[in-house]
Amino acid sequence: MAKNILVTGGAGYIGSHTVLQLLLGGYRTVVVDNLDNSSDISIKRVKELAGEFGNNLSFYQVDLRDKPALEKIFSETKFDAVIHFAGLKAVGESVEKPLLYYDNNLIGTIALLEVMSAHGCKNLVFSSSATVYGWPKVVPCTEEFPLCAANPYGRTKLFIEEICCDIHRSDSEWKIILLRYFNPVGAHPSGHIGEDPRGIPNNLMPFVQQVAVARRPALTVFGNDYNTVDGTGVRDYIHVVDLADGHIAALRKLSDRSIGCEVYNLGTGKGTSVLEMVSAFEKASGKKIPLVMAGRRPGDAEIVYASTEKAERELNWKSKYGIEEMCRDQWNWASKNPYGYGSPETNHS
Question: Which one from 101, 133, 153, 226 is the annotated catalytic residue?
Answer without folding.
Answer: 153
